[in-house]
Automatic annotation (TrEMBL):
Catalysis: reaction(s): 5-hydroxy-2-oxo-4-ureido-2,5-dihydro-1H-imidazole-5-carboxylate + H(+) = (S)-allantoin + CO2
Annotated ranges, domain Oxo-4-hydroxy-4-carboxy-5-ureidoimidazoline decarboxylase: 9-161
UniProt-recorded name of the protein: 2-oxo-4-hydroxy-4-carboxy-5-ureidoimidazoline decarboxylase
Organism: Paenibacillus arenilitoris
Pathway membership, UniProt: Purine metabolism; urate degradation; (S)-allantoin from urate: step 3/3
E.C. no: 4.1.1.97
Keyword Transferase in annotation: no
Keywords: Decarboxylase, Lyase, Purine metabolism
C-alpha cells in the first residue's frame, strides 16, 4: 500500500502509528512521537524527524532499538519488512555451511557489542553481508553503535520510500 505525504499528514494518530509503527523494527514509539510533529513536507522530512527522535533518545532506548532487529541469516521468524529484505539478499536460501557461518558471526557480534548485526541489505548479496560482518567485528563499541544507527537510517529510508508516494 502506497500513500501520499498529504494523506499521511491527515491520518489520525492510531492509523499513523499502524502505518509507520513497523518502519523501525518493533518500535512504534517512534511513529507515536512523530505524529504531533506533522505536517511533513516530504517523506525525507518525515524520515529526518523520525531519525532525530531516535538520536535524541536515551542510550538505553537506542540499544533497545538495536536489539529489536533480527539476526541476519537465521531461521527465526522475523517481521514482514525484514523477511522481504533478507529474501532479496538471498538469506532465505543459505547452504548449511553458509548458515553456520552466519550463525557464528551473529553470535560473535552479539557477544562483542550486545546487540545484533544491523545492515541495510537491499542491493547486497550474502557474500557482501558476510564481508561486512567480518569487517565490522573490528570496530570499537562506539564506532559500531554509530554504524548501526547509520544502517537503521538506510533501512528506514528505504522502507519509507516504498510506503510514501511523492
Amino acid at each position: 500500500m502506497a500513500i501520499s505525504i498529504e494523506q499521511m499528514n491527515g491520518l489520525d494518530k492510531e492509523r499513523f502509528v499502524v502505518l509507520l509503527g513497523t518502519i523501525f523494527e518493533h518500535s512504534p514509539w517512534i511513529a507515536e512521537a512523530a505524529w504531533p510533529l506533522r505536517p511533513f513536507a516530504s517523506a525525507e522530512e518525515l524520515h529526518a524527524v523520525m531519525m532525530n527522535i531516535v538520536r535524541e533518545s536515551r542510550t538505553e532506548t537506542i540499544v533497545d532499538l538495536f536489539r529489536s532487529h533480527p539476526d541476519l541469516g537465521t531461521r527465526l521468524a522475523v517481521a514482514e519488512y525484514s523477511a522481504k529484505e533478507q529474501q532479496g539478499a538471498g538469506l532465505h536460501r543459505l547452504t548449511p555451511e553458509e548458515y553456520g557461518r552466519f550463525d557464528e558471526l551473529n553470535r560473535t557480534y552479539v557477544e562483542r557489542f550486545g546487540f545484533p548485526f544491523i545492515l541495510a541489505v537491499r542491493g547486497k548479496t550474502k557474500e557482501d553481508i558476510l564481508a561486512s560482518m567480518e569487517e565490522r567485528l573490528r570496530h570499537t563499541a562506539s564506532e559500531e553503535a554509530e554504524t548501526a544507527l547509520s544502517e537503521i537510517a538506510k533501512i528506514t529510508g528505504f522502507r519509507l520510500k516504498d510506503l510514501i508516494t511523492e
